Design the sequence.
DNA sequence: ATCGCAAATGTAACCGGTTACAGCAAGAGC
DNA sequence: GCTCTTGCTGTAACCGGTTACATTTGCGAT
């Protein structure tokens, strides 16, 4: 049996649809016993309002669209967790759409029009023109770690340059010299900035930068570590641009009989939950992506409430120095 | 500026809204050059169809509602990842709604009516009457690990009893006798069934069951391990009802100077990605929740395509014996 | 030029709600 | 008893699309 509509309720209760709407939405100007009658009829029919229709006439959906690259690995899952926590606290639903690496993904943004009140986009490796072309005109949109496409949108930007620089400082301070960087994919904003910060710090210390290119997946950490094992003069530190690559490398080093951090230090980036649990615990830069996600929802909600916000909010990652870089497992 | 509507396009192109609709949706019966004209006008105006309105008249949303307990910990994140992968492969969007432990969460199901074509519900600790009361009548709904409320819905059920039994067998086979079970919260279906399987196997071997009650969170693993450390005759194996509790306990044991698995074996349940990475790697039961999530989407899609499906599909977890229970770190 | 028919286009109803405005009844004030 | 308010209820327009059906157009055949 199909769902009952407001007209079915009106007919069964012998009132007009306007009255049903008012009675069920608590609009005050309905006689008390009539209101109760309508409510009981609605309950008896198992009436549930059609949210789609409702939001069409209200021009309000109580939903936020979320666009992420993918859900692989803990990083974006953590982001989504933070978004979700804040959204449900505010009674908002989430409409999810992942780009899965392919640039076509932006087109799914079109399908969000009319279904959401605001948008949260996290897309570090999207083509700027593409993003700009698909960015909806009349929808509050919070950008997290996206290319610079507009000064009109509230943004979160991670200070990758300073953070990567700080990580090199940490490694140099603990006596490392041959520090290799395993980067994320070219074209990814976070990846490029981390390379820049790494290179600047290396150069400042008179060390020569060496960058291997990875793709943020565990396997590319595995591959990079195997490559390093073959070197005649082996690196004494590997700084990976995210935690999963660092962990992939860590496992390979240990399996090859090297001890971490004595033979080689390993550091990551992001501080995903997993980082604390590997042995030795992984040194990394804490980004706090779940908190950023939650805050993004708050900013979107504030804009919906009428505030204006075009601020670029900078996030400064914090170093988490753990056993994978600081020797003497004291 | 507000978004352009189909009427704006029609006016600007000097045609009727019907023609615009047909031209943009590729309905064939539009003169070729008129179609192009309409398309260029639409592009010039930055017209994007209002998906909400579209799905109201089509009675089709191309979205699936997903209801999970929460996104804490990797288990449900993995489930969502599987669901998401299959959904985007099929061009479906996901509308997310978490219950966050409180039973009120089911009410958010109401807000899904009219917004989604089908529903996937994973709710091992929901009150059956509540679930039944809020289960929408006319929406394909796939249940994963839910209480028995209906024979009319496609379901996935995890064979927790057999799996917990098998884990006890594994521990007994490796010489353990004082095997303690750290359960999930009372009222949670998975938790109760794992207790049952554990108890049955223990009794069969003439061993006395001992169950500590946890809540599936890491902290309750920590607490349980601390409690066990105080025992005079200490347990020689801890079988936790999920991986996070097992890992919490593992850390405490090691910090207290015990060696795992020599002094005490530790086993979990779920095989979350993290389980492979702790040291020693965690023995666990692989549920394959991401695959289940993906399959749930496929079943929902099949029902939407007209198939009928009221099958209860049983999932048999596979044991992953790793170093946390099998001695001799060979 | 006229007719017939197929193809293209327009008109209007519909999806399921909300709400401005109109209508109506009852009570207050004279 | 009559008018004026006040407050409840109903009618109908609207949100932005789709599409059945009616109408117009274009073209070939006569």
Sequence:
């Amino acid at each position: 049996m199909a769902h009952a509509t407001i007209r079915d309720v009106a007919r069964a209760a012998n009132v007009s649809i306007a009255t049903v709407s008012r009675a069920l939405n608590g609009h005050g100007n309905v006689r008390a016993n009539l209101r109760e009658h309508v409510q009981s009829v609605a309950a008896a029919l198992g009436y549930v309002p059609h949210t789609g229709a409702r939001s069409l006439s209200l021009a309000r959906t109580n939903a936020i669209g979320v666009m992420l690259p993918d859900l692989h690995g803990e990083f974006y899952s953590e982001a989504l967790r933070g978004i979700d926590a804040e959204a449900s606290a505010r009674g908002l639903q989430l409409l999810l759409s992942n780009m899965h690496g392919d640039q076509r993904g932006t087109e799914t943004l079109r399908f969000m029009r009319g279904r959401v009140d605001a948008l949260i986009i996290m897309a570090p490796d999207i083509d700027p023109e593409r993003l700009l072309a698909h960015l909806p005109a009349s929808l509050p949109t919070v950008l997290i770690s996206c290319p610079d496409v507009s000064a009109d949108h509230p943004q979160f930007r991670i200070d990758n340059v300073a953070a990567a620089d700080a990580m090199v400082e940490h490694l140099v301070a603990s006596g490392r010299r041959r520090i290799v960087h395993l980067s994320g994919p070219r074209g990814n904003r976070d990846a490029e900035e981390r390379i820049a910060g790494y290179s600047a710090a290396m150069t400042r210390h008179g060390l020569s930068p060496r960058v291997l290119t990875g793709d943020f997946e565990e396997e590319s950490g595995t591959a990079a570590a195997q490559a390093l094992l073959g070197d005649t003069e082996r690196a004494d530190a590997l700084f990976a641009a995210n935690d999963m690559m660092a962990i992939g490398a860590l496992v390979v080093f240990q399996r090859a009989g090297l001890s971490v951090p004595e033979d080689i230090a390993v550091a990551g980036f992001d501080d995903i939950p997993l980082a604390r649990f590997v042995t030795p615990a992984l040194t990394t830069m804490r980004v706090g992506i779940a908190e950023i996600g939650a805050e993004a929802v708050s900013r979107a909600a504030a804009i919906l409430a009428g505030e204006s916000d075009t601020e670029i909010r900078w996030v400064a990652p914090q170093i988490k120095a753990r056993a994978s870089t600081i020797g003497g497992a004291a």
